[in-house]
Amino acid sequence: xxxxxxxxxxxxxxxxxxxxxxxxxxxxxxxxxxxxxxxxxxxxxxxxxxxxxxxxxxxxxxxxxxxxxxxxxxxxxxxxxxxxxxxxxxxxxxxxxxxxxxxxxxxxxxxxxxxxxxxxxxxxxxxxxxxxxxxxxxxxxxxxxxxxxxxxxxxxxxxxxxxxxxxxxxxxxxxxxxxxxxxxxxxxxxxxxxxxxxxxxxxxxxxxxxxxxxxxxxxxxxxxxxxxxxxxxxxxxxxxxxxxxxxxxxxxxxxxxxxxxxxxxxxxxxxxxxxxxxxxxxxxxxxxxxxxxxxxxxxxxxxxxxxxxxxxxxxxxxxxxxxxxxxxxxxxxxxxxxxxxxxxxxxxxxxxxxxxxxxxxxxxxxxxxxxxxxxxxxxxxxxxxxxxxxxxxxxxxxxxxxxxxxxxxxxxxxxxxxxxxxxxxxxxxxxxxxxxxxxxxxxxxxxxxxxxxxxxxxxxxxxxxxxxxxxxxxxxxxxxxxxxxxxxxxxxxxxxxxxxxxxxxxxxxxxxxxxxxxxxxxxxxxxxxxxxxxxxxxxxxxxxxxxxxxxxxxxxxxxxxxxxxxxxxxxxxxxxxxxxxxxxxxxxxxxxxxxxx
Amino acid sequence: xxxxxxxxxxxxxxxxxxxxxxxxxxxxxxxxxxxxxxxxxxxxxxxxxxxxxxxxxxxxxxxxxxxxxxxxxxxxxxxxxxxxxxxxxxxxxxxxxxxxxxxxxxxxxxxxxxxxxxxxxxxxxxxxxxxxxxxxxxxxxxxxxxxxxxxxxxxxxxxxxxxxxxxxxxxxxxxxxxxxxxxxxxxxxxxxxxxxxxxxxxxxxxxxxxxxxxxxxx
Lengths: 597, 218
What we know:
By secondary structure, chain A is mainly β. Chain A is built from two helices and 29 strands. In chain A, the strands form two sheets. Chain A has a 22-stranded antiparallel β-barrel. Chain A has a six-stranded antiparallel β-barrel with strand order 2-3-6-5-4-7. The longest helix of chain A has 15 residues, at about 1-15. Residues about 1-30 and about 120-165 of chain A have low confidence and may be disordered. The two termini of chain B are about 35 Å apart.
């Protein structure tokens, strides 16, 4: 019985074989014998860098040299012969004959090489197994590190050459026995990719109008973020992010204040970054940027270098001016140096600890010595733990002395079966003593004693009928007072209409100057590419410091929004809101239009 | 002393949570692979058909055939929400690192953190994934010491947060005069400076009208 099955299998395999007994380039491995004087190197087209030329995935280390003849086999036409014009270590550029039709990426081909030349300039081994069964091998592995191909062995793995073979010439870097043997795709390096442009552009308008001739504000913005990949052929990335905006504020005539208007352009980011990829462990960023590893420093104008080691650990340093973090992002009064080290448990980076140091100067005078400590533990499901701490080292004329925890944020989240979740957050914040103009001026007393701690617990659970119950409770404490907040909500989907959402919530809060309680109801629906929401909220406030009798008030908010998206990347949104306050009513309205490309 | 107790308690709670979180191995972990060694394409093609022309066209691998569709939720188990649905594959699958590693970090894995790490990692608490415009600011503000009531609920963010346009909201002092310095200087009837009315504004003013005081009983 076993023999019968084996014979049947052999017969079927013969039927499946193509009629030609000669292996095509596609069937061939890294090298195939042709005649006594030459051998064939299989290759693939990876890109067309310019008209009349194609790039192939073989280079000097595979034995290619300038002047070698290449035969490409496009699907749509006959064979096309080309000549190698440029050779790099792992790729080459082939010139096509005049008038040749464009060759698609992935097109297979062969290069005919002299037998005396092989990979890395060593003599080619005699290859005798020219009639191996079709499909026994696929392409040779990509030269930039693809997995090993077909039946080719890895000499480094200690495999004995098979009978009839000399040592296989292919030395697959990085391949280990637990990896799959077959690979059918080439790996492009960043510098081999086409120049690409992506990003988004957007504009928005927001307005606030007080009824009865009250104050009004308008704010118009137009901005774009553009990312150019491989702009100069070196595999880097050029990023531009900026916006122009116009703001005006008109006061009522009895306010004794002058109307204001301003228009400005703000450059948020403009940098060139190269490296930092799996092929290049060093990354260099030049321009106006946010540090990937230490964004706590803020926007920087300068340069940053970092290195990722094989075990995933990393370190880096930066030297940059620190623009003031306001609406202009101007200023060159502040300069800083930073250095950091990042430890990860393994290459998955699920668990990370990082420590950084930032030393800054204001107008040449030493300003801040800041230590930044970070940690995370982020498995895909289950827990999410994040923590960041800012620790200032005070000295000299500072109000405080020694180390002080200026700011800290931590959160611990847990998801349960995708249906329930719980999140605990903690924040601590003090005013750092800075020469830098980073925020509104505060007094010495606030710097010395001011501190705020907040802790919150939020969660949600799916209950019967697909309804979702959510809740949050929080407490805060500062140098003088304490308070907290509470919210309980219920969301029901598919209420009355398919795709609709009904949300109900009650809430309360105790602030420093007021206490409030209220309720909210929201109805929304997503239908195809259009989403709309209607929302009503009532809130009762009590002003605790007010000496008069009118220390409470009720305000109402009604808000309607709609947003439409298109398959081509457009998003268009409109909103309108009316606030019915105790004395003065306010209308808010605006729109936004954006497109990703 | 009370502050130190709160900080100590918070640290204790987090230490307990970290111990609890890291004591078991019941979670789904990020795949360990040799991607960093340069193996494989940035997009896993293992399950794709062998005919490249089904998806690719033109002279570059980045150009996809017209009408190309890919059900990311079905094929990769990860739904693409909002603007991510229309994003180029290479914005996430690129040479910077294995995409699982970066997605595990949430938004911060790919997007710049303009908030300097001050607002945590739950970006969607405030931003929609469609247009990234912030939503629900008033609701979020109730978690602070300064719930927005009256005219504060309809004031532009920048009036109190000078860095709001670049994503910086803290620290923000919350005494009235910190934001209303110009109003105080303009208050000549009565002359607030002359009478020493330079703090405790909330004794006479409630935030329900832009520029007039509702005088209290005293």
